[in-house]
Amino acid sequence: MKLAVVVQRYGADINGGAELHARYIAERLAGRAEVEVLTTCARDYITWRNDLPAGGDTVNRVKVRRFPVASPRKPERFGRLSNLVFDRTHSVADELRWLSAEGPTSPALIGHIRRVRNDFDFFIFFSYRYYHAWHGARAVPDKAILVPTAERDPALGLAIFPPVLAGVRAVIYNSLEERALIEHLSGREGPSIVVGVGSDIPAQPDARRFRRKFNVRRPFAIYIGRIDENKGCAELFAYFQRYAALYPSGLDLVLVGSNVLQIPKHPRIRHLGFLSDEDKFDALAASDLLVMPSRYESLSMVALEAWALGKPVLVSGRCDVLRGQAVRSSAGLYYEDFDQFAECLYALEGSGPLSSILGGNGREFFARNYAWPVIERKYLEMFDRLAREASPAPMAPLPGWLARRRRDAPPARRVVDEAPTGPVGRP
Amino acid sequence: MPDINVRSDSVDVEQIMRQIRARIREKRGSDYTETELQQLASVKLQQFLDPRGVRSDLVEQFRRHRIVSDAPPNYVFEDTTIYETHRAPIRWIRKVLNPILKLFFNPNPISSALHVQAEVNAEFHRRFRQREDMDPLFFEVIHNLVVETTRLGIETQNLRMRVESLTSRLDFDERRARALESVVEYRPAAARAPDAQTRGGGDDRPGPAGGAQPGGREGGPDSELRRRRRRRRRRRPGQTAADGGPGGQGQGPRPAGQPAPDNGGAERPEAAPDAHPSPDDRDGPDDGGGGDEGGGGDTDQ
Q1: What residues of A are in contact with residue B12 (Cβ under 8 Å)?
Q2: What residue ranges do the domains of chain A occupy?
Q3: In this model, does residue A139 exceed pLDDT 90?
Q4: According to the CATH classification, is domain A2-198+372-418 in 3.40.50.2000?
Q5: A247 to chain B: nearest residue by CA?
Q6: B28 touches chain A (CB under 8 A)
Q7: Exposure b/e, B84-118, CB count within 10 A at least 16 = b
Q8: Has residue B187 been placed in a domain?
Q9: How large is the ipTM?
Q10: Which chain A residue lies closest to B28 (C-alpha atoms)?
């Protein structure tokens, strides 16, 4: 079997959520099939500048082919178009302009996909919202498998996406909540499966080594990821400072990751910056729990890693996906306000009654759903199924020239806001 | 904080969250969550804000009046505007005759004024649009003020209730302390009651208590004299009648069911002086009687 993984950026040092997800999947499937990655020369997701050379490359024994981005993103134009399509009535033509402005606009990549469509059995597209996925899926709809990595953001409400989401051959979701949302918005009925992604968990992470190395003595909750307001960190800091004032002998907060947001100076908040994988897993092993305050996640890999190490997770109750996973796994609690945050932290302390029980559930949940053999099996089963089944009806075409320019598409934000919310119960 | 009740390894996160929420409700009492405050601020403004003279529909009014106006019509006026026409020959004639026109009056100041006015209009509209753009910020400020006012109103109400509660408790404690003090202070008097009943008099104690028993069951001048003599014999050398407490009867027998004070009320300096009875002390005998009946003073409170 020959598979193409198509993603906006690719590289061993590129750590964006969807990009890392794509790399893990490509590397794992490379052991079961012939895999080639098709991507752009961009490294920076803000500008999509051509930082890497075009042409062939090999990353961790996986063949990679890069194509140049025709024009870098102009943030002002993109912002203006985003305001138009998210918040005002607009036309399909406006949405297509928005898609081009968002990038990474690489007609060469799309042209290549068209040329080699017969050389591959399936094309696995990551991140529905970018240029490569939308145009690529329309180029090879009968061979397109989409991993949308969709969050509950306004882009999902644009009128150009439902035909693609409904018309690709299969969709591989990260969570039940993502599936419910996409199926509601696109009316999709074709093959789909909830898979997610695994992680390479070290067998023996060393908590003591971490405590020695970073001189961390007190029990602590850990946050791992980009320290950004969009990730809910501002709320986390506000809540934690109140918690620290109320409970002087409670947990400390350790932050791992690069910061975009200013971190408050507080004796019980430690920022360790970006850590190697070894240090990261040691830190997780030393922690009492992981905090994940983000409201917009399609899947939190770090939460899965915490569960793999038997650590409970405290997540934002406003993120349907995380809340749903916490409930389904019985391995974490969620909070919606400060009182719940403080009570949950107390309940999840390492010496508390819940820590070991929830941690054990998390370990089991990870092994049952996110261990690499499970992930690989799900992908292979989907390929087998698609190979057996006939191709469905072709993807709906774009509206005509005049219809594309008719200003009748509702604001995308409104469309998403009107979609049902809440976590999905146990399957 | 009490621990969460986990009965088995198969935990239900929703169940735990219900327990946590219940505990928060218990702890919080009459406080409100942020969400509830927001709801209160938007729904019950009338209740909270009208008494203070703030319009109850302030937020709604703000929201309703948030409009972005269209640009008003404007014109462009240059020094050539008054000579412009779509007919080229006429334009040429006007240009040729312009020096002659200027012999009658000078149109340049008019052109200049109208040109400046057009720019002023454009500038005015630009500033007006800026002001409209600021409206959402004002709205946010007003909204936050309303939320904070609501929160303060609720807090004030809670504090007022707490002060009332504390005041009533303090009052209760004071009355209770007074009742206890009076019991201790008037024990001898209470003890004297059976004594007086035995004597059939109480004539050595002024006031209504003594006068309430005009005729004793056993009394008589002889028996009274005998008692006095016996008492004088028992008194230690150097001890006066006042040293023994009111009426010098601090060591008298206790009434049935009345516990003995630890130090003997008569020995407490604040309880001893008869010379300066407080208003409460003056009521003492009655209170003491009440105390004998089972501490009625306490139960009243």
Answers
A1: 330
A2: 2-198+372-418, 207-369
A3: yes
A4: yes
A5: B1
A6: yes
A7: eeeeeeeeeebeeeeeeeeeeeeeeeebeebbeeb
A8: no
A9: 0.80
A10: A339
